[in-house]
Amino acid sequence: MVTEIIMKNICNGFKSEIENPKSEIKMIRSFVNNPYQENTYILFDETRECVIIDPGMYTASEQNAVVNFIRDNQLKPVLLLNTHCHIDHVLGNKFIFDQYGLKPQFHEGESYVLASVPAYAPQMGFRYEPSPLPDHYLPETGTISFGNTELQLIFAPGHSPAHLCFYDEADNILIGGDVLFRGSIGRTDLPGGNYDQLINNIREKLFTLPDDCVVYPGHGPETTIGFEKKHNPFF
Asked: Which of 33, 86, 102, 119 has its CA 20 to 30 A from that of 80?
Protein backbone atom coordinates (compact mmCIF):
# COMPACT_ATOMS: atom_id res chain seq x y z
CA MET A 1 0.00 0.00 0.00
CA VAL A 2 1.26 3.44 -0.90
CA THR A 3 0.22 6.73 0.63
CA GLU A 4 1.14 10.13 -0.76
CA ILE A 5 1.10 13.19 1.45
CA ILE A 6 1.58 16.43 -0.48
CA MET A 7 2.45 19.12 2.00
CA LYS A 8 1.35 22.48 0.68
CA ASN A 9 -0.84 24.78 2.78
CA ILE A 10 -2.30 21.86 4.68
CA CYS A 11 -1.10 18.35 5.32
CA ASN A 12 -3.88 15.91 4.49
CA GLY A 13 -3.86 13.45 7.35
CA PHE A 14 -6.08 11.64 9.78
CA LYS A 15 -7.88 14.79 10.95
CA SER A 16 -7.64 18.55 10.93
CA GLU A 17 -5.36 18.50 13.98
CA ILE A 18 -2.38 17.79 11.71
CA GLU A 19 -2.77 20.95 9.67
CA ASN A 20 0.68 22.40 9.01
CA PRO A 21 0.53 25.89 7.49
CA LYS A 22 4.33 26.18 7.44
CA SER A 23 4.71 23.57 4.70
CA GLU A 24 4.50 24.77 1.11
CA ILE A 25 6.56 22.63 -1.23
CA LYS A 26 7.90 19.74 0.80
CA MET A 27 6.60 16.35 -0.24
CA ILE A 28 6.67 13.05 1.58
CA ARG A 29 5.64 9.68 0.26
CA SER A 30 5.04 6.65 2.44
CA PHE A 31 5.06 3.01 1.39
CA VAL A 32 3.65 0.37 3.72
CA ASN A 33 5.93 -2.65 3.39
CA ASN A 34 6.54 -6.22 4.56
CA PRO A 35 4.43 -8.34 6.93
CA TYR A 36 5.05 -5.86 9.77
CA GLN A 37 3.32 -3.08 7.82
CA GLU A 38 6.36 -0.85 8.21
CA ASN A 39 6.31 2.68 6.83
CA THR A 40 9.11 3.49 4.39
CA TYR A 41 9.41 7.19 3.60
CA ILE A 42 10.74 9.17 0.68
CA LEU A 43 11.18 12.82 1.54
CA PHE A 44 12.02 15.32 -1.20
CA ASP A 45 11.85 19.01 -2.04
CA GLU A 46 11.84 21.28 -5.10
CA THR A 47 15.42 20.32 -5.99
CA ARG A 48 14.21 16.74 -6.64
CA GLU A 49 16.89 15.38 -4.36
CA CYS A 50 15.39 12.82 -2.02
CA VAL A 51 16.19 10.82 1.07
CA ILE A 52 14.96 7.26 1.60
CA ILE A 53 14.22 6.47 5.24
CA ASP A 54 13.80 2.96 6.67
CA PRO A 55 13.45 0.94 3.45
CA GLY A 56 11.38 -2.06 4.46
CA MET A 57 10.63 -3.36 0.98
CA TYR A 58 10.56 -7.14 0.89
CA THR A 59 8.64 -8.33 -2.17
CA ALA A 60 9.33 -7.45 -5.79
CA SER A 61 6.12 -5.43 -5.96
CA GLU A 62 7.16 -3.40 -2.93
CA GLN A 63 10.57 -2.78 -4.45
CA ASN A 64 9.04 -1.78 -7.78
CA ALA A 65 6.67 0.69 -6.13
CA VAL A 66 9.61 2.62 -4.69
CA VAL A 67 11.73 2.51 -7.84
CA ASN A 68 8.81 3.52 -10.05
CA PHE A 69 7.91 6.44 -7.83
CA ILE A 70 11.48 7.73 -7.87
CA ARG A 71 11.71 7.32 -11.63
CA ASP A 72 8.30 8.77 -12.45
CA ASN A 73 8.97 11.86 -10.35
CA GLN A 74 12.52 12.28 -11.64
CA LEU A 75 13.96 12.16 -8.15
CA LYS A 76 17.63 11.81 -7.29
CA PRO A 77 18.23 9.64 -4.19
CA VAL A 78 21.15 11.08 -2.23
CA LEU A 79 20.75 9.59 1.27
CA LEU A 80 19.66 6.32 2.84
CA LEU A 81 18.79 6.74 6.53
CA ASN A 82 17.73 4.24 9.17
CA THR A 83 16.05 5.42 12.34
CA HIS A 84 17.10 2.08 13.84
CA CYS A 85 18.06 -1.37 12.61
CA HIS A 86 15.32 -3.84 13.47
CA ILE A 87 14.66 -6.21 10.59
CA ASP A 88 11.45 -4.60 9.35
CA HIS A 89 13.26 -1.27 8.86
CA VAL A 90 16.33 -2.62 7.02
CA LEU A 91 14.94 -5.32 4.72
CA GLY A 92 15.41 -3.02 1.72
CA ASN A 93 18.85 -1.61 2.57
CA LYS A 94 20.69 -3.94 0.21
CA PHE A 95 18.16 -3.31 -2.56
CA ILE A 96 18.59 0.48 -2.26
CA PHE A 97 22.35 0.04 -2.31
CA ASP A 98 22.15 -2.08 -5.46
CA GLN A 99 19.82 0.40 -7.17
CA TYR A 100 21.36 3.72 -6.18
CA GLY A 101 24.76 3.00 -4.62
CA LEU A 102 23.68 4.41 -1.25
CA LYS A 103 24.97 2.93 1.98
CA PRO A 104 22.81 3.39 5.08
CA GLN A 105 23.52 5.96 7.74
CA PHE A 106 22.44 5.39 11.33
CA HIS A 107 23.86 5.74 14.83
CA GLU A 108 26.78 3.44 15.57
CA GLY A 109 24.94 2.11 18.61
CA GLU A 110 22.59 0.27 16.25
CA SER A 111 25.45 -1.75 14.72
CA TYR A 112 24.97 -4.83 16.87
CA VAL A 113 21.22 -4.70 16.20
CA LEU A 114 21.91 -4.83 12.48
CA ALA A 115 24.57 -7.52 12.91
CA SER A 116 22.05 -9.80 14.65
CA VAL A 117 19.51 -9.72 11.81
CA PRO A 118 21.01 -12.53 9.65
CA ALA A 119 20.85 -14.94 12.59
CA TYR A 120 17.16 -14.46 13.41
CA ALA A 121 15.71 -13.60 9.99
CA PRO A 122 15.32 -17.27 8.88
CA GLN A 123 13.56 -18.11 12.14
CA MET A 124 11.02 -15.42 11.29
CA GLY A 125 10.59 -16.72 7.76
CA PHE A 126 12.44 -13.88 6.05
CA ARG A 127 14.84 -14.10 3.17
CA TYR A 128 17.33 -11.41 4.13
CA GLU A 129 20.12 -9.94 2.04
CA PRO A 130 22.59 -8.41 4.49
CA SER A 131 22.69 -4.65 4.55
CA PRO A 132 25.89 -2.86 3.60
CA LEU A 133 27.58 -1.08 6.48
CA PRO A 134 27.79 2.69 6.74
CA ASP A 135 30.78 4.66 5.58
CA HIS A 136 29.63 7.33 8.03
CA TYR A 137 27.69 6.94 11.26
CA LEU A 138 25.30 9.59 12.50
CA PRO A 139 25.93 11.37 15.81
CA GLU A 140 23.41 11.84 18.61
CA THR A 141 22.90 15.49 17.70
CA GLY A 142 23.52 17.65 14.67
CA THR A 143 22.00 17.95 11.22
CA ILE A 144 21.98 16.16 7.90
CA SER A 145 21.02 17.89 4.66
CA PHE A 146 19.78 17.15 1.17
CA GLY A 147 18.57 19.59 -1.49
CA ASN A 148 17.31 22.66 0.36
CA THR A 149 16.24 20.62 3.37
CA GLU A 150 17.93 20.25 6.75
CA LEU A 151 17.01 17.45 9.14
CA GLN A 152 17.87 17.71 12.83
CA LEU A 153 18.94 14.52 14.59
CA ILE A 154 17.06 13.62 17.76
CA PHE A 155 18.56 10.76 19.77
CA ALA A 156 15.68 8.84 21.34
CA PRO A 157 16.65 5.32 22.44
CA GLY A 158 14.31 3.09 24.39
CA HIS A 159 12.68 1.06 21.63
CA SER A 160 16.14 0.26 20.35
CA PRO A 161 19.53 1.15 21.85
CA ALA A 162 20.45 4.11 19.60
CA HIS A 163 17.26 5.17 17.84
CA LEU A 164 17.29 8.45 15.91
CA CYS A 165 14.40 10.63 14.79
CA PHE A 166 14.71 13.15 11.96
CA TYR A 167 13.10 16.58 12.46
CA ASP A 168 12.56 19.09 9.67
CA GLU A 169 12.10 22.30 11.65
CA ALA A 170 11.31 24.44 8.61
CA ASP A 171 8.33 22.27 7.71
CA ASN A 172 7.61 21.12 11.25
CA ILE A 173 7.58 17.38 10.53
CA LEU A 174 9.19 14.49 12.36
CA ILE A 175 10.16 11.12 10.91
CA GLY A 176 9.86 9.30 14.19
CA GLY A 177 10.58 5.63 13.55
CA ASP A 178 9.26 3.39 16.31
CA VAL A 179 9.38 5.88 19.19
CA LEU A 180 5.89 7.41 19.16
CA PHE A 181 2.77 6.14 17.42
CA ARG A 182 -0.76 7.45 17.22
CA GLY A 183 -2.13 6.43 20.61
CA SER A 184 0.85 4.27 21.51
CA ILE A 185 4.63 4.00 21.84
CA GLY A 186 7.31 1.65 20.58
CA ARG A 187 7.67 -1.74 22.22
CA THR A 188 10.50 -2.07 24.74
CA ASP A 189 10.73 -5.84 25.23
CA LEU A 190 13.29 -6.42 22.48
CA PRO A 191 17.07 -6.52 23.17
CA GLY A 192 18.29 -3.02 23.95
CA GLY A 193 14.80 -1.78 24.84
CA ASN A 194 14.16 0.28 27.95
CA TYR A 195 10.69 1.49 28.88
CA ASP A 196 11.69 4.27 31.28
CA GLN A 197 14.26 5.56 28.80
CA LEU A 198 11.71 5.62 25.99
CA ILE A 199 9.10 7.47 28.07
CA ASN A 200 11.67 10.03 29.22
CA ASN A 201 12.93 10.64 25.70
CA ILE A 202 9.42 11.19 24.38
CA ARG A 203 8.66 13.64 27.18
CA GLU A 204 11.96 15.49 27.05
CA LYS A 205 12.79 15.45 23.33
CA LEU A 206 9.58 14.94 21.34
CA PHE A 207 6.95 16.60 23.50
CA THR A 208 9.06 19.76 23.48
CA LEU A 209 8.45 20.11 19.73
CA PRO A 210 5.53 22.31 18.59
CA ASP A 211 2.08 20.85 19.18
CA ASP A 212 1.31 21.06 15.46
CA CYS A 213 4.43 19.11 14.50
CA VAL A 214 3.32 16.21 12.29
CA VAL A 215 4.81 12.87 13.29
CA TYR A 216 5.31 10.22 10.62
CA PRO A 217 5.87 6.97 12.54
CA GLY A 218 7.39 3.66 11.57
CA HIS A 219 3.98 1.96 11.68
CA GLY A 220 0.43 3.21 11.40
CA PRO A 221 -1.00 6.63 10.57
CA GLU A 222 0.57 10.02 11.10
CA THR A 223 -0.23 12.02 14.21
CA THR A 224 0.80 15.26 15.89
CA ILE A 225 2.73 16.04 19.03
CA GLY A 226 -0.24 17.93 20.44
CA PHE A 227 -2.64 15.06 19.80
CA GLU A 228 -0.35 12.60 21.59
CA LYS A 229 0.20 14.90 24.56
CA LYS A 230 -3.58 15.07 25.01
CA HIS A 231 -4.68 11.55 24.13
CA ASN A 232 -1.82 9.04 24.29
CA PRO A 233 -2.65 6.66 27.19
CA PHE A 234 1.02 6.22 28.09
CA PHE A 235 1.23 9.84 29.27
From this structure: 119
